[in-house]
Amino acid sequence: MSAGLSVPALAQTIHSPGNKLTLSFQLSPSGEPTYQLHFGAKTVVNTSKLGLLLQNQPGLDQGFQVARIDSTVHDATWQPVWGEVKNIRNHYKELAVTLAQPAANGHRMVLRFRLFDDGVGFRYEVPQQPGLTYFVVQDEKTEFNLPANHKAFWIPGDYDSNEYAYTTSRLSEVNTTPIKAIEKKAAPTRIQTPLMLKSDDGLYVNIHEAALVNYSAMMLNVDTKTFGLTSQLVPDATGTGAKAYLQAPEHTPWRTIVVSNKAPEVLASKLILNLNEPSKVTDTGWIKPQKFVGVWWEMQVSKASWNYSDTTNIKLAGTEWNKLKPNGRHGATTANVKRYIDFAAAHHIPGVLVEGWNVGWEDWVGNWKEEVFDFVTPYPDFDVNELQRYAASKGVNIIMHHETSGSVTNYERRQDAAYRFMNEHGYTSVKTGYVGRIIPRGEHHDGQWMVNHYVRTAQKTADSHIMVDMHEPVRPTGLHRTYPNWLACEAARGNEFNAFSEGNLPEHETILPFTRLMGGPMDYTPGIFKLQGYAASAPQRQVHTTLAKQLALYVTMYSPLQMAADLPENYNEHLDAFRFIEDVPVDWDDTRIVAAEPGDYLTIARQAKGKNEWYVGSITDEKARTQTVKLDFLTPGTTYEATIYADGKGASWDKNPTAYQIRKQKVNSKTTLKLQLAAGGGAAVSIKPAGK
Amino acid sequence: MSAGLSVPALAQTIHSPGNKLTLSFQLSPSGEPTYQLHFGAKTVVNTSKLGLLLQNQPGLDQGFQVARIDSTVHDATWQPVWGEVKNIRNHYKELAVTLAQPAANGHRMVLRFRLFDDGVGFRYEVPQQPGLTYFVVQDEKTEFNLPANHKAFWIPGDYDSNEYAYTTSRLSEVNTTPIKAIEKKAAPTRIQTPLMLKSDDGLYVNIHEAALVNYSAMMLNVDTKTFGLTSQLVPDATGTGAKAYLQAPEHTPWRTIVVSNKAPEVLASKLILNLNEPSKVTDTGWIKPQKFVGVWWEMQVSKASWNYSDTTNIKLAGTEWNKLKPNGRHGATTANVKRYIDFAAAHHIPGVLVEGWNVGWEDWVGNWKEEVFDFVTPYPDFDVNELQRYAASKGVNIIMHHETSGSVTNYERRQDAAYRFMNEHGYTSVKTGYVGRIIPRGEHHDGQWMVNHYVRTAQKTADSHIMVDMHEPVRPTGLHRTYPNWLACEAARGNEFNAFSEGNLPEHETILPFTRLMGGPMDYTPGIFKLQGYAASAPQRQVHTTLAKQLALYVTMYSPLQMAADLPENYNEHLDAFRFIEDVPVDWDDTRIVAAEPGDYLTIARQAKGKNEWYVGSITDEKARTQTVKLDFLTPGTTYEATIYADGKGASWDKNPTAYQIRKQKVNSKTTLKLQLAAGGGAAVSIKPAGK
Question: In the record, what terms sit under GO molecular function (chains A, B) (predicted)?
C-alpha cells in the first residue's frame, strides 16, 4: 500500500505474520512519530514517541508529515555459520514510513518497522537528500512507555562496563545509587539493555538493539513514576553531548522488543540475529567453534601472575625486559604452557589460551597510560617458536591474548603487526581485552568511536583469518551473524568474579540468557571444579555453584567458544566429571528451551552439529528444584544412552558443592528425565545412540 | 658546588661562559622557585615563578626546600646531518637545583638551567621517586616577567593553528579579539611562541621552547598591565583541563629565552638545537635535503582540483571511484605529473610533489569525518606504476602526499600500509597534512596526544627511510636535530595565503625567521613568479612581493626542503631568473646574518655545503632600502663571479613586481655589494669562483 500526505496521519497498523503482535504507527498532531505495540489484547508498549535530535540544526522529531508508506512481507530461511540451530527463519511484516518536514527544508526520515511473531525491530533511516549530508546525533528520543510497573532485571547504565550483578526490582524501584560503580558512576535511573521485564499479566518483554554499527550504544532512562523508558545514547569525548557523527544515507541500529507470554520463547527468539546483516565473511571454512583451557584462572586466584617481574614503573620502549628480576610466579612460562598443552591434547580440547605472555604487565592498568603493550614481544621465559612447534606437534592451538588496557589508539597502531605476528606463529584466535579507561581519553567503551573499533577489529581479524573473543567491549547486538569470526564477547559479569570478588549469586546464570546473551554468545568461562579454597588470599571465598551446575552451563550458556576454566590439577581430581566437558559440543543443529524463568531456573536441550546426539543442561538459583525433561525430541524408535551428571546426595552450593553423581540410563523419545537440582545446583546430560 | 638544605635558600647565581648573561635562582619565603635573567646590567626577566600544578595531588610549585645544587660547564661541538652551518658549538653553564617538599611526602623536582651566551633554557624534571610515578600536569605556571612594555611580534594563541599574520604591538596592546580565528577562538591575551620581543633599551628577546616531546605546547598569557607572561599549556579532550599525562622519570620541554642586543645574533642562535637530543637516526645517508616542484599551486589558484570528481557525499569504503564522473579539472593526472617531471628533470630539481593523487578529496574537509583517505588508492587517472617508471627514468623522485584531514586515528591505523606502499613504489619523502579538527575528537593540534603523534611519525618514517614534511602540525622546537629525516614543517602562514586570501604583507617574511623559524625549517613554498592575475576567481589579487624577493627567500628562509612553488609555464617565462632557484643549495656549511631587523629587513649570506660558493638573500618590508654586504667571508685572494638578481628599475611589489635585472660582476673578499631593494622587494646573489 501507499498513501499521500496526511496531517495528522491515520494510524498505520500492521499485524505480525502469525497475528500474535500488532504494531501501530501514528503521527501526533504536532507531527511527532509515535508507535504502540500489542500482544493480542495486552499492551506491550503504550503510545511512545520516536525521534532524533541533531546538533546545530532542526531535529528529526516533530513537524513531520507522512510522505509515503510501504509495507511488505518477508519470509526466508538461512543457515548460520555456527549457532544454536541449523536453520533460522526470518519471517516478518515490514512497515516503512517515509516522513517529511515541510518546515525544515523538507528533510526526510524513514522509520522502518519489522514485526515478527516474537517481537519488533525498528530503526531510523536518513536517506541521501539535499541539505542533510553530514550531521551529528545529539540525542535519540525513542520511548518505550510500558503500561505497568513491571518486574525488571537490570544493571546500571555505566557507559564503560557491563560487569554488574543484576538487580531484580519493580521499575518504580530502579535506583543505581547504592551500586558500586565499576568504571563511571551511572545516573540513578539509567540502566542498560538487554533489559528483561516481566509483567503481572504474564508477558515477558526484552528490550535491546540489533546491529550496533557506527553509532553509540543505547541505554535507558527509567521514569519510575510513569514506567516510561527513554533511550539514552552514550556521549563522545567532546563534552558537547554528541552521540554519533553520521553521513547520509545512514541508519541507526534496530531497537528491538522481544515479547512472549512464555519465557522460553524469549530465549528461542532469533529476532536480533535476523535483524543483522548476513555474513560479510564469504570463505568461512577456517572458522572453528572450539573449547579451550588456559593459563588464566591461576592468575585470577593469585597462584600465578600475568607479570614476569614485580618491578613496577615500567616504560614499554625503555625497559630491558631480560634484565628485570623475575618474580618466580609468572604463569605464562614455556614449561607451564606445555603443561596446559599436554592436558588439552590428552582431553581433545583444541585451544590453550595464554595470558601474560607479552611484556608490559608490570603496571598495566589504572594509569591511563598509552604505551602499555606492543602485542609482539614475549617475556624472556616465553619461547614463542618452541611453543609453536610443541603445540602443533600435539594438535593444539595456542590462543593469542591482546589486552589493550583500554589504550585503543596504541592497539590500533599495532594491530597490523600483531595479526601478522599471529599468522606467522600459528595463532588462529585472539582474546582481546579493554580493561580500564579508554584512550582516546574521554571516549567510552560504549560510545560510537569504540563501537566502530570493535566492528573494525572484527573485520580486520576476519581479513587475517583470525577468530576473535572480545572482553570488556560494548555488549553484543547479534553482529556475530555478520562477522562469524567474532565468536564471543565477555561484556557481562563472568565467572571470574568468583575468583576476585564476592562472586555471582546462584541466580546470575539464570538471568544472563534473558539479558546479556540476547545479543550474542558470552565467554563466561565456566567449568570451575575446585569451588572452595581456591583463592589463597581469601580462603573463605567460594563459587556460588555446585560442580554439576558448572557442567550444565556448557549447555545453558550458549557459546561457540567455551573455556574449561579451572586448572589441570583440579580437573585431574574429577576426570569422570570432566568427561562431560570433553564431550559437550560448541555448535548445534537444534535447541529446545525446555523450561525457563529468569532469576529462577533454566533447562535447555541441544542437538550436536551433524550428530544424533543431544545434550541437556539444567540449572537453578539458590533453591533446590526438580526439573523434568521430556525427551520427545529424540528420534522415535532409537535407543540412546544418557549419561547424567547430577548433584550428589546432600549437595548444595554453600555446604557441599563438589558432591556429584554420574549415572547412565537407556532412554528414548518417550522417556521423561527427572533431574534433581540442589540449591545452587544443576545437571548435565549427554544422550548418545546406545551401543556406539 | 653542592649545598645542603637552606630555607629560604640563598640566591644561586651563574654566569654564561662569556659572562654575557647572568641567571639567578631563589626560593621565595613560601618555597616557590623563582628565577631572574640579566643581560649585562639590563634586566631580561624580573623575578618570575616556576612550578607545575598536578591533577588530584599537591602541586610542584611551593613548599620547596633546596636539597642539592649541581653546577657544571659543557663545551662541545657537533655536526648536524644538514643545516645552516657545518659545526655547532654547544657551550653552556648548567645549574641543576634539586628541590624537595617536606610537607608533600618529600616529593622531589629538579630545575635544570642551561645558560648560554645567547640565552637560557630550563626545564622541570621529575625524578623516579616513591609516591610520584604516574601523574597528570594540570597546569604549568612558568612566568616570564618582563621589565617593560616591549614591542612584540605575536599571533593569537590558537590551540589548533599557527597560520596567522603577525601583529606588531606593545605588550600592553595585545588583544586577539579582532583577529579572525582559523580553528578555535583564542583567549584575548593568549599568544603563541616563538614570541619575538624588542625592548626600548635595545634588547632582542625570543621566548619559545625546545624539544617538545610527550607534552603539550606552551602558549603565553600576557598580563597587559604588568607585562608578565605566564605559560598556558594546551588542554586535552577530557574537559578536566589535563595538560600532560606523565610517568616519572620525566621532564618537560626546555623553556627557552634567546637574548641579544643585536638582532642578527638571535637569528644565529643555535640554543634551541643545542637543547635537543642528538640524532636518533644512526644511518643518515638516505636523508637528502632537496628542492621540489609540484602539482600544488595550480590547485591553490583554482586552475585544477585535488578532487577527481565534483560528486560529493562520498564514502571511502563504499565508493566505486572509477564510476564517478570526472570533473575534467583534476590536477594529479598521469599526463600532468609527467609534465612536472619533465620540468624538474630539465632544471635539476630532484622532487615532484603530487597532491590529490589519492581517492577521498571529493568532500574531505569540514565534516569531522573519520574515514576520509586511505593513502594507498590512486584516482583512476593517476597511474602509480607508470609514474614510478617514468620518474625513475628521468632521475626524479615523486613526493608522496598524506593529507589526514585531521583524522589522525584513521591515519595511524593506515600508516604501516601507507609507508609500505611508498617503499614499494619508490617514494622517499612524504608531505603530511592535518587540516581541520582533530580526531580523536576534542584533542587539539598542539596538545600532548598530537605532539606524540608528530614525534612518533618522525620515528616511524625514519624506520622506513622516509623523509617527512609536516603541514599543520604543532610549531617546531628543534626536533629536526633528533629526527633529521623530519626535514620541515609548515606550522605558520605560508606563501599559499597569497593564493586564497588577502595574502601576506611584505613584512611577513622579515618576521618569520625571528618567530616561527626559531624552532626549525619551514616549508614556506617560495618562488612565485606570476605575481598578478594568477587567481582566476580574484583577478585583482597579487602577491605582496617582487619576483627578485621570491628568489631571495631561498636564502633568507632556511629550509633543507624548498619548493619552487609556481607552475612550469610561469617559470618558462623567466628562465633566466629561475636559474637562481636551480643553483641555490638547500644545505650549507656556513651562514652569516649580515643584517636583520624583525618586521623591516633581513640579509643573509650562506656558503654551499662542501663548496666554495656563497649565496646571499636580502629582503625588505614595504619600504625600499639599500643593503650593503661586505663579502669578507670569501676566501682572500680568490676572484669570484657574482650573479646578482635584483629588483629592476621601477620595481615595487604593488605596481611592478616582475621587473628584475640580472647582472654579473667579479668580486673578492674586499668587495662590498650594494643591493637596492624595491618596496616589498629583495635581491639574490650567487657567488662562485670565477672561471669555473
Answer: carbohydrate binding; hydrolase activity
What part of A 197-216 touches B (C-beta under 8 Å)? none
* A209 neighbors A255 (Cβ within 8 angstroms): yes
Domain membership of residue A32 (yes or no) is yes
Sheet holding A42-49, edge to edge: A12-15, A21-27, A33-39, A42-49, A143-145, A228-233, A218-222, A190-191
Q: For cell 583577529, what's the residue?
A: B179
Contacts of B247 (CB under 8 A, 6+ apart): A313, A315, A367, A369, B133, B134
State the pTM of this model: 0.96
Predicted confidence (pLDDT) at residue A500 exceeds the cutoff of 90? no
A94 in any annotated domain: yes
Residue A457 three-state SS: helix
Task: Using pLDDT thresholds of 50, 70 and 90, give the confidence band for residue A692.
Answer: low
**Mean pLDDT, residues B362-376:** 96
CA atoms B74, B77, B80, B82: torsion sign? positive
Let me know: does A449 contact A443? Beta carbons within 8 Å: yes
Is B430 a domain residue? no
Per-residue confidence at A181, pLDDT binned at 50, 70, 90? confident
Pick from B313, B372, B437, B449 the residue to mutate for testing the A interface (most A CBs within 10 Å).
Answer: B313
Q: How many helices (H) and strands (E) does chain B have?
A: 12, 36
Question: What ipTM did this prediction achieve?
Answer: 0.95
Task: Answer yes or no: B496 catalytic.
Answer: yes
For residue range A272-319, what is the model confidence (pLDDT) as tens digits? 999 999 999 999 999 999 999 999 999 999 999 999 999 999 999 989
Cα angle: B312, vertex A251, A273; to 5 degrees: 135
User: What CATH number should be reported for the domain holding residue A137?
Assistant: 2.70.98.10
CA-nearest of B76, B31, B20, B77 to B58 is B31
Q: Helix %, strand %, coil % for chain B, to 5?
A: 15, 35, 50
How many domains is chain B partitioned into structurally? 1
Evaluate whether residue B615 is within a structural domain. Answer: no
Q: How far apart (Å, rounded) are the C-alpha atoms in residues B52 and B60?
A: 5
pLDDT digits (tens, 9 = 90+) for B598-634: 999 999 999 999 999 999 999 999 999 999 999 999 9
Angle subtended at Cα A609 by Cα A607 and Cα A614, rounded to the nearest 5 degrees: 20
Domain coverage including residue B152:
3-274
Is A237 in contact with B442 (Cβ distance < 8 A)?
Answer: yes
Q: Say which of B367, B440, B449 has its CB closest to residue A134.
A: B367
The pLDDT value given to residue B9: 56
Give me the total of CB pairs closer than 8 Å, taking one residue from chain A and one from chain B: 87
Task: Kindly report the backbone phi and psi dihedral angles of residue B574, in degrees, each rounded to the nearest multiple of 5, phi listed first.
Answer: -140, 55
Neighbour tally for A115: CB within 10 Å: 23
Q: Is the dihedral of CA A508, A512, A513, A515 positive or negative?
A: positive
Contact B416 A417 (CB under 8 A): yes
Q: Nearest Cα to A264, choosing from A95, A514, A72, A435? A: A514
Q: Is the pLDDT of residue A495 over 80?
A: yes
Find the residue in A nearest to B411 (Cα).
A413
Instruction: Write out pLDDT tens, residues B371-423.
Output: 999 999 999 999 999 999 999 999 999 999 999 999 999 999 999 999 999 99
Give the DSSP letter of residue A236.
-
Place of cell 622587494: B681
Strand partners, B614: B607, B687
Mention every residue, 6+ apart, whose C-beta is less than 8 A from residue A463. none
Query: pLDDT of A34-58, one tens digit each?
Result: 999 999 999 999 999 999 999 999 9
Looking at residue A357, the DSSP 8-state letter turns out to be -
pLDDT digits (tens, 9 = 90+) for B457-475: 999 999 999 999 999 999 9
**How many Cβ atoms sit within 10 Å of the Cβ of residue A264?**
18
